[in-house]
Amino acid sequence: MLQICVQKQMGEFSLDAQFDAPAGVTAIFGKSGSGKTTLINAIAGLVQPDAGRIAVDDRVLFDQSARVNVPVAGRRVGYVFQDARLFPHLDVQRNLTYGGNHNAAQVIDMLGLGSLLGRRPAGLSGGERQRVALGRALMCDPQILLMDEPLAALDAPRKAEILPYVERLRDRTRVPIIYVSHDVSEVARLATTLVVLDAGRVAVAGPVGHVLSRPEVVPFLGTRAAGAVIETRVAGRLLDDDLTELQFSGGRLLMPGYLGEIGQKLRLRIPAQDVILARTAPTGISALNVLPVTITDIVPGRGPGVAVGLRAGDDQLLARITRRSLGRMELAVGMQVFAIIKATAVGPEDIGS
Ligand SMILES: Nc1ncnc2c1ncn2[C@@H]1O[C@H](COP(=O)(O)OP(=O)(O)OP(=O)(O)O)[C@@H](O)[C@H]1O
């Protein structure tokens, strides 16, 4: 567990953030200038806070009141940047082991680097370079892994290629990973915990599924990015129609294509703008997924939109509708309605393990 409490004044900007990052991926999400990089630089020891305390398990890295400030080199922090920053004149093997070779065989296996070892960075794709950068950070035997928009420079196919490796890393290591990202699909797939920063303050923090499905978070995420994340299990395949049936606490969902073996767990992000509400069970519509839900929250936005929180079984979903529809349908908290989700609303980037 990484405990973070950081106060820092940088010119006009003040950062005042406190949260815990358990094992797994803690995503830091926030608009440009909200303080994400300053925060992770403080964890790395590259920026000295004015006050606060940073500790990983029992090891204190910074404590202003106790005058503890472990220098960068002593913090055992692995840092992966947006650009891989590999040494161009060294092959992958030597880039990987430059700072150490802790668990080298496992790291090479986990990140699928075996076939790249003799190559130079110039001959690698962007995604391969980032995998090497990740491997290099891990071989230093870090106690914390910091990743600052590590996939931001990659195109969608390269991102899709590397995401399963990051998921594997999250699931196999106990090292807390702090992951800065602007991309909500990436956050929904990878994060265990989500911290939303707004103007240097923690606007909301908690398990990713809870945070993303809260209607009051919509303004921080932006209306297009808002959407709930649910844990599902593959329950079946409809081969003739090329669909996969997913089961979750609120019912079953049909999604296009092959999504995994029966029984496999899948995390699904359902964008709020793709959820339609109906007061009665609709008939004669093309959408495949109709779920009975209960309205838990209604949060008006600044514009014409309203975020509606919905309970489906033990899970929370989120819909974004217009204020006009809300009024016309006379929707209210506690009311039972139907959520309609098009099977094609959820893209491949929204589905993770
Ligand atoms: N050395 C500095 N002196 C003064 N202000 C600074 C300094 N470094 C950063 N800032 C300011 O602190 C604020 C937070 O910057 P930071 O880079 O942490 O934000 P960010 O959330 O990482 O942004 P982005 O997503 O654009 O990278 C910004 O307003 C920035 O201009």
UniProtKB/TrEMBL annotation:
Keywords: ATP-binding, Cell inner membrane, Cell membrane, Membrane, Molybdenum, Nucleotide-binding, Translocase, Transport. InterPro entries: AAA+_ATPase (IPR003593), ABC_transporter-like_ATP-bd (IPR003439), ABC_transporter-like_CS (IPR017871), Mo/tungstate-bd_C_term_dom (IPR008995), ModC_ABC_ATP-bd (IPR011868), Molybdenum_import_ModC (IPR050334), Mop_domain (IPR004606), P-loop_NTPase (IPR027417). Residues 1-224 form the ABC transporter domain. GO terms for cellular component: membrane. PROSITE patterns: ABC_TRANSPORTER_1 (PS00211), ABC_TRANSPORTER_2 (PS50893), MOP (PS51866). It holds the Pfam family ABC_tran. NCBIfam families: modC_ABC (TIGR02142). This is Molybdate transport system ATP-binding protein. It comes from Yoonia tamlensis.
